[in-house]
Design goal:
This protein is of the alpha/beta class. It has helices at 5-11, 45-51, 75-83, 98-101; strands spanning 16-17, 23-24, 31-39, 59-63, 71-73, 88-95, 107-113, 125-126, 130-132, 135-137, 142-146, 149-153. Helix 2 (45-51) runs parallel beside helix 3 (75-83).
Length: 160
């Protein structure tokens, strides 16, 4: 499946495009799927819980509040996501272990990198609407990402 977000925008003018600022870090540079949302701030406990569950080709959209003070994803969680069938993660925050994540079969878009891990306090919300980059992400909607950007649709889009 090849995802080209400019083509999706041309074919579906109703879809929403996320404001620029995200970078591709994963070993898969284009990905998409049904949205599962996590809202957390400098605590990736819920992310850790979710990557341990079957992903069924879905994309986890993580609203980390844009924090650049800690990483919400590292190599161990990325590898767990791959082994459990997640298509990718879009993180409004930072990640770490980018050299390893860049070799995983996982799509990962984030704002940047930070070497420090988060504290684990079990704080966060699952499957609530989250807003960043000028777009609201709803659980059950669809997100598609490539090196051109990130787009969101209420329904699945044909990407072949």
């Amino acid at each position: 499946m090849a995802i080209v977000t400019p083509d999706l925008c041309d074919e579906h003018p109703e879809i929403l495009a996320v404001e620029p600022g995200f970078r591709n870090f994963g070993g898969v540079d284009n990905f998409g799927g049904e949205i599962v949302t996590v809202k957390c701030f400098e605590d990736n406990s819920v992310v850790k819980e979710q990557v341990a569950l079957p992903g069924h080709g879905k994309v986890m959209v993580v609203d980390g509040g844009g924090s650049k003070r800690a990483a919400l994803l590292g190599d161990m969680l990325a590898e767990k996501a791959v082994s459990n069938g997640w298509a990718g993660l879009v993180i409004y925050g930072c990640i770490r272990d980018v050299d390893v994540i860049g070799k995983t079969e996982l799509g990962v878009q984030a704002l940047g990198t930070h070497p420090r891990k988060t504290e684990k306090h079990g704080v966060g919300q699952l499957n609530v609407p989250v807003t960043f980059g000028g777009v609201t992400f709803h659980p059950g909607h669809y997100v598609y990402a490539d090196n051109n950007g990130i787009v969101v649709s209420e329904k699945p889009l044909k990407t072949d």
